[in-house]
Amino acid sequence: MTDASEAMPEVVDQVALARLYGEPLFALPQDLYIPPDALEVFLEAFEGPLDLLLYLIRKQNFNILDIPMLDVTRQYLGYVDEIRSRNLELAAEYLLMAAMLIEIKSRMLLPPRQQEGAPEPEDPRAELVRRLLEYERIKLAAQQLNALPQYGRDVLRAQVHIEQSQQVRFPDVQPGELQQAWHDILRRARLVQHHRITREELSVREYMSHVLKALQGRRFVELETLFDPARGATVLVVTFIALLELAKETLIEITQAEAFAPVYVRLAYTPT
Questions:
Q1: Angle at CA 49, nearest 5°, toward 38 and 64?
Q2: How many CB atoms lie within 10 A of CB 53?
Q3: Region of residue 250 (phi > 0: left; psi between -120 and 50: alpha; otherwise: beta)
Q4: Would you tell me how many other CB atoms lie within 10 Å of the CB of residue 94?
Q5: Closest C-alpha among 176, 191, 161, 199 to residue 256
Q6: Can you list the pairs that 85-93 forms with residues at least 24 positions away whose Cβ atoms lie under 8 Å?
Q7: Is 25 in a helix, a strand, or coil?
Q8: pTM of the prediction?
Q9: Which residues sit opposite 256 in a β-bridge?
Q10: Between 222 and 85, the higher pLDDT residue
């Protein structure tokens, strides 16, 4: 039987690397095999070739107006070789930029051809510098916009549902609206009236009685139905005056459901 002291590890204070079947493991086994592709770590993620170039330049504090093409191209190609083995579709875009860098590097190695009277040839890096500066401005602007509070991410809309009983309240009829309704009635009356020369004595009290009889047994009566345009403007005027007298004596109520809605009339009392 094995002694318990012999089963304990030689280094007691060392921190265990892992536990295997519940037992602490203080050192890696000598025959442990780890496949090369078992673990891949990408510390930086780039949004495109310009983003990678800008990262390489800013990380090493290179002057963007005087880019050392040798160092930048070497580091860029190293990254492209890394992603070519994993993602050919992604590497295609980076390969195009790699070809552009190699071309710029080659043009810088060759002596410039300058003719007499011709302007000084442009720096081969000028177009690349312009694109990098423009991309950097857009990237900084995007970061500033992303830092602003966004609805759904930083800000949520507060919604509160309040249940309360509401009592229906009809708007009061203004004198101007009553006048407009009266003008509409007169306008329609003129369209159907005939020219007559007559003399008729009309009683306002009599037409007040006619209006009250027309309202009896009915909850609401539209104002226009109380007038008979065929009887002429005189009867219309007397009927309108009768309505005003009844409203003045609080025998009828003139109501309106909402603004610009039809005007209704009803009895202000319950007939016995």
A1: 125
A2: 25
A3: left
A4: 22
A5: 176
A6: 86/40, 93/48, 93/49
A7: strand
A8: 0.39
A9: 263
A10: 222
